[in-house]
Amino acid sequence: MNELHVSALTCEYKTNPLGIDVRKPRVSWQIKSDKRGTIQVAYQVQVSLSENNFEKPLWDTGCTASDQSLHIVYEGPDLVSRTRYYYRVKLWDNHRRESEWSNVAWWETALFETSEWQAKWITPNPEELDPMSEPAFLLRKEFDLKDGIASARIYATGVGLYEISLNGDRVGDELLTPGWTSYCQRIQYQTYDVTAQLNEQSNAIGVMLADGWYKGNLAWEGKSNIYGEKRGVLIQLVVHYHDGTEEVIVTDETWKAATGPILYSEIYHGETYDARLDQDGWSNPSFNDGNWKNVVVNNIQLTKLVAQENNPTRVTETIKPVSVFVTPAGDTVLDMGQNMVGRIRFTVNAPEGTKIVLKHAEILDKDGNIYFGNLRTAKQTVEYITKGEGTESYAPYFTFQGFRYVKVEGFPNQENDLSLDHFVGEVIHSDMAPKGDFECSNPMVNQLQQNIQWGQRGNFVDVPTDCPQRDERLGWTGDAQVFIRTALFNYHGGQFFTKWLRDLEADQLPDGGVPFVIPNVIDGHSSAAWGDAAVICPWTVYLSYGDKRLLEEQYTSMKAWVEYIRAQGNNEFAWNTGFHFGDWLALDAKEDSYFGATPNELVATAYYAYSTQLLRDTANVLNKTEDVKLYTDLLNQIKKYYRDEFVTPLGRLAVSTQTAHVLTLMFDLVEGKVKERVARDLNEMVLDNDYHLTTGFVGTPYLNLTLSNNGYHETAMKLLLQEAYPSWLYPVIKGATTIWEHWDGIKEDGSFWSDDMNSFNHYAYGAIGDWMYRIVAGLDMDESEPAYKRIRIKPRIGGKEMTYARATHQSMYGKIESAWNITHKEVRVEVEVPSNTTATIILPYARIDDVKENGIAIMKTEGVLDVTQTEEGISLVVGSGSYRFAYTNERGLKTIYSADSLIIDLLADEDTAQVLEKTIPGISNPHGILAQLRIHPINKLLENPMTKMTEDRLNELINDLNALEVELDSVGS
């Protein structure tokens, strides 16, 4: 039986994409094999206009000798607009096997040429309906169709946000369409398959249209109408008949317009919906629109239209509130149990005219009252006025909120008993597929990982925003670049960042400067570490997905940014001019300042070097040999200036901040003995500060990476596991379910950081995830072969409170896993390597003659291509497959990780194990039990409702653990 299969076919990152305008799309696939060490040696791709007939394909690669299974470019005849293309793949592997043809997949093109748009932009006649009025517009048209409909597509967009209904039913499930782009340069349009929604004969189409990002209130200065003053919509419905004819229905002057029940809708402020103003049946045929107003053509350039690039924004999950309570101030408040982004949907049965108000907030103050202070001017308020005709259901259409708590006003009988059954939270974000996960023996770190993922979901709402609750929600470039590698591990963000980077290029200034936010709606541009997103982000997407085309697209933008820096000041090798955010929000800042103590010139010149290095590397990938030499020489000169300016003659860094040392090490600005000195000094700074950080937005993402990569991994682990402020776990202790903007968003006494900038959902510090996945769990790549074609597995086993860790990532090639588990007697490492890749695995402190893989000596293990004994342990090169390694825990691991090794031995005692299992049944593995015992004070553990253990028994166990640790420490010494 042949167990070689082609699976997971994608085109331009998407499964069966409907409506793309890529003229040479790229296809990718994964390989499923029952044999270890499977490598593709040849492939064949066929493209056809028929799903069932590939006898005369439109394009056939033939048997092509290649191990490439990602981004295979279509090279057939020119594609035609509004056409579905079917494709299939087969392959041959290094085991001399030939697969069957894959299942057939497809892509469908949208509109390639501007001339293909017959539709016109329309808006209500401003003489009849004020374009500046707050209510959302309703627009409609009735039309008749012939019998024999074969297929139908709607191509649609709007300036403002739109939602389409066809014959009374909503079209699609996308939200906040067409998304937020640099509207003056680019406007996305969406494609919908509406074949099943059309009637033969009478039909009607309706559109709701609100301000959205296009003309609504944006940023903290209260600006509106940034892109334009008139909403507009553009719709083209194309109907194909079985007889080969087609009919086109378009937006034009024949449409009608009105206002409806949405009286007000703003991104920041919420929505007001008066159900008494519902126009029942308004998107059905035969509706009486005699009182509706006329429309006029709105002059918007069609050349700005691009087919949907990003993942659509959708409801991806629903959450029930966990409780309802009355605050000391007398407010009725829902607790969703999770700081989320989205909306509340509720059902109500109330008399006509009942006004229900929902006010959304992230946090309670120290007195237990709902806290709105950090929203600044954002109202986050939803109002609904009932129609009074039975059970009504509502959720806002054109806004979203960032919240955990919801103040409810006006709900019938809420003062007596507000039932949770009336409410559900709908989680909204760009619908990126989950791709990565991390877990370990420390439940608080696991919660941190959940916080990172929730923070990403809440802030990836079509653009990578900085916060989802206050009057900001902007695509800050600095936040995006520090978090992008973590982001691309956790979720499939290839499409997301491709779209955003095209907006960055569109908004880039003529001299190469980069605005602070993308899309650009505020004043200011070109801060170091912020503008560098122009280089760092496309390079990181390339590393994650092997997307060379994106590098080619963005190369001009990348180069323009480096040349912008080069032109600043009077020294082309330094960056010592202009405004910079520096190490934003660093804890070594002066009192009442946001700017950290690390000099701007050091931060700016370090990033100048880093962007130049990445530009040089990009030129190398794209075979731009002249630029490789140009930017290699420039990089060397920048590094020389940096060393001359910031390194003393004795080899010490002249700036004594943690961030200065982190950037110097991370960006390879020193080498040899000086590098060792800088690393040692950084480690001592952390130790002298009692294992606390002082870094801000610039230094924090790289702090643990530089420590681990320079020989101080134990210090990095202590930083991760630090519970006292400032630390990653301090917010967890305070109940955080997302990442905070400030280390002390909630202070020890329960008071808050200043209202002016205190988001409790701000993903930047979640960049620690990258270190957790790559270093702690050890799942990394060899960057010379991107997209995890060559995997690096190097687990850093142990840590004072860590006895196992596991990371998984669904790469373009398939699932990768790296997991380790340590007991007092044994080390286990589990690895999964997808087909068509290889992995280098480092087993720390292992000896060749001691390692077994599923009970077989390592030298006899199938799939192991090379084995080398090193000072670190064993270095293995393996092919694809799942591997389970085990070896004796030698003295090196015992000494370093003494506590956890002996604690696990304690569990081997059956009586103790049974007690633990009975007392804490909610924890399924011994590592989780141990972590709770060791990191929580006894009184905290006793408060845990899962815990039934007596205080005396807990004290007895803790004493046993401490005695065992002392015993081992004496052995280790």
From TrEMBL:
Coiled-coil features, chain-numbered ranges: none
GO molecular function: hydrolase activity
Pfam families noted in UniProt: Bac_rhamnosid, Bac_rhamnosid6H, Bac_rhamnosid_C, Bac_rhamnosid_N, Ig_Rha78A_N
Domain Alpha-L-rhamnosidase six-hairpin glycosidase: from-to ranges: 435-776
Domain of life: Bacteria
Residue span, Alpha-L-rhamnosidase C-terminal domain: 783-853
Name of protein: alpha-L-rhamnosidase
Organism expressing this protein natively: Metabacillus bambusae
Organismal lineage: Bacteria, Bacillati, Bacillota, Bacilli, Bacillales
